Amino acid sequence: MERLSNLSYKNQRILIIFLFSLVPVVLLLTFSYLPVFKMFQYSFTSWDGFSKNMEYVGFDNYKTIFTKPEYFAVFKVSLYYFFATFVQMGLALYFATILSFNVRLKNWFKGILFFPTLLNGVAIGFIFLFFFKPEGTLNTLLDLFGLGAWQQKWLLNPHLINISLAFASVWRYMGMNFIIFLGAISSIGSDIYEASEIDGANRWHQFRHIIIPSIKKILQLNLILAVSGAIGVFEIPYVMTGGSNGSGTFVIQTVDVAFKYSKLGLASAMAVVLLGIVVIVTILQRVLIKEEK
Amino acid sequence: MKKTKAVTSLAALTLMAGLFAGCSSNNNNADNAAATNAGNTGTGTEATAAPEGDAAKDIKGDITVITQRTDIVDTVFKDYAAKFNEKYPDVKVNFEALSSYEDQIKIRMSTNDYGDVLLLPTSVAIKDLPDFFEPLGKMSDLEQQYTGLEERSVDGISYGIPITVNFSGVIYNKQVFKDAGITEVPRTFEQFQTALQNIKDKTDAVPLYTNYAAGWTLTQWEADLATVAGDRDYVNIAQVASDDNFVQGQPHYDLYKVMYDAAKNGLIEEDPTTTDWETSKADLANGKIGTMMLGSWAIGQIKGLATNPDDVGFMPFPTNASKILVPLSDDYNLGISLHSKNKEAARAWVDWFINESGYPTTEGGGMSPVKGAELPEILKQFEGTDVTFDTIAPAKAGEEGWVDAIDKEAEIGLWQPDFKKVIIEAAIGNRKDSYDDIMKDLNDKWKAARAKVTAAK
């Protein structure tokens, strides 16, 4: 300890900062960067996942992905989730705005809306599997309200399955958007509202001219997160249908290739491609949104 | 002031140390817990230990047995350990049960720590087994004692012994059949479809429950391929020699046509996408379901849920072949980790488990792999009929693992639910493809992959 105290205050600070950041940086390197690096490495091999020898195959895996249309066909399914994203953000913004004003049972509503985010995705999958059963919750409810004619086999009908699943996805992730919006809206000073009220603004005016401009950055952020989320949809369709009946997504396909057909090399290449797509989409969004200004 | 700085840095260091220490002490705890558990098992049986012979006494050590039976690991397996300790008092047996065995063990096998005794994952390529498992002996020697070794042997050396030998076919409810007026067990495809139709017309039961949602249950159909072919050589020998695996008239085509026709004619459950495996077992046991395609391992589980266990029956898959062959195939194989530190003790457990625990017939629900063991009760009805039970022939020398290699290369998934799901989706009208389209697509993939695999070897 003698020696440490001999160091100057500045050096001690550096040392401590270094030591403290060592742990998170090591964790980050081991669990984020190393796997990504390895993924790139595997994507050039025909490794099956356990074999001791790894065969280098160059760009063969990428060639397979880009020459076989069935690997990209599944992105059609992502469109459902992409459109659901806007529903999700709209609802989140709507609830966040309402709940930022004085409403009775405000905290209770906040809790209800945020609750799904806390649940485990697998549990949600099972809940909604029951919800969509022919004799499940949704059909029972419809019957109760005299809408028996609207009853459907929600997961059997190929035109409805992805909408049903996207609905479950909206339910699951809306809370997160909601809480972010709520936080952003709360940061707007109450004096601005007061001033606008004096000028005769109603709630819509306030929303249109105060709230929206103030949280524009957060809106953009949420949009980017939601769109890349829509590209990488996985757990809800995987748990509920296993990707069957036309609900398979690119990530489900990647997992299947890796673990059902033991083509870890090809699956890594698919993951790299997905990463590339997400990066491109994000950059595109940033560029397009900037141009609007 | 200087002192405070020193104190701050000291505190920082202590925190850091604490972080690391925290990690390691957790490990210690886990180890201790495991050790205490083992200790309990040990002390519980020491009193009753009755050592036999010096060889058994000499074997000592701690072994970890990894199993897929989460349902009985704390009950039946504990009893096994107690009985095992009567013979080998110095071996402490710890158990670990994995809920999705295949997935979890695969990940653990990339390290050196995957227990001492474990089940050989079916997804490990046969040729890679020597990298992970201890050789159990020459196949020609072990063959005198056990059946089913050929499935997990490489170059004449065996790496696993089956924990039970399964037979596959149709599990049905006898009462439902009686109510539907079916007096004779259907033998051909036509008779089987008629039987299903009768169940639909005359009873409230679901004629054929596919368990589409669970997925893996659909893979059980693949085991009946040998019955449809009526030839024990078909699966591993004839199949790999043919470019026309899914063409009309071939066993694969006929096998899944049964599934397609049943679904097309509305003889399956109302909404396959929301089925539930656990409920289906009880429903079959109690007459709400007529038939399910499963292996013998399911019989015990279904009977356990039945109000009248005698209603649960087994029959061979329908076939137009001249003789009825019910294929016998290995359940998981039991093997020893290459990295085990107590290989002698591990070997003792393997031998004891297969030969003396009674698991193969009681808990496993199939036949014992030990040669000359008695047939299970449910099969005795077939004695003296034209139904034969036989293992499927191993691949020709030099062609081991080809079926698997072609299947994976083609991404067909013979033992995966995917194309079976497509068949059902097409049959109920969710897809435009006809049965022939699906089969043609599979056959094209098979042909291309087969060309690639046979050229490479």
State Rg of chain A.
Answer: 25 Å
The computed structural class of chain A is mainly alpha
What gap, in angstroms, lies between the N and C termini of chain B? 76 Å
- The percent range for helix content of chain A is over 70%
Query: What's the order of the H and E elements of chain B?
Result: HHEHEHEEHEEEEHHEHHHHEHEEEHEHHH
> Could you say which overall geometry of chain B the principal axes of the C-alpha atoms support?
globular
C-alpha-based Rg of chain B, rounded:
26 Å
Number of helices of chain B: 16
| DSSP summary: helix tally of chain A | 15
End-to-end CA span of chain A: 57 Å
Q: Average pLDDT across residues of chain B?
A: 83
Beta content of chain A comes to under 5%
Assembly annotation: heterodimer
Protein architecture, described:
The complex is a heterodimer of chains A (293) and B (457). With 293 residues, chain A is mostly helical. Chain A has helices at 2-6, 9-42, 60-67, 70-73, 75-100, 106-118, 121-131, 137-144, 161-186, 190-198, 203-214, 216-231, 235-240, 250-259, 264-292. In chain A, helix 2 crosses helix 15 (264-292), helix 5 packs antiparallel against helix 12 and helix 12 (216-231) runs antiparallel to helix 15 (264-292). In chain B, 41% of the residues lie in helices and 14% in strands. Chain B contains 16 helices and 14 strands. In chain B, strands 8, 9, 10, 11, 12 and 14 form a six-stranded mixed β-sheet that branches. The radius of gyration of chain B is 26 Å and the shape is globular.
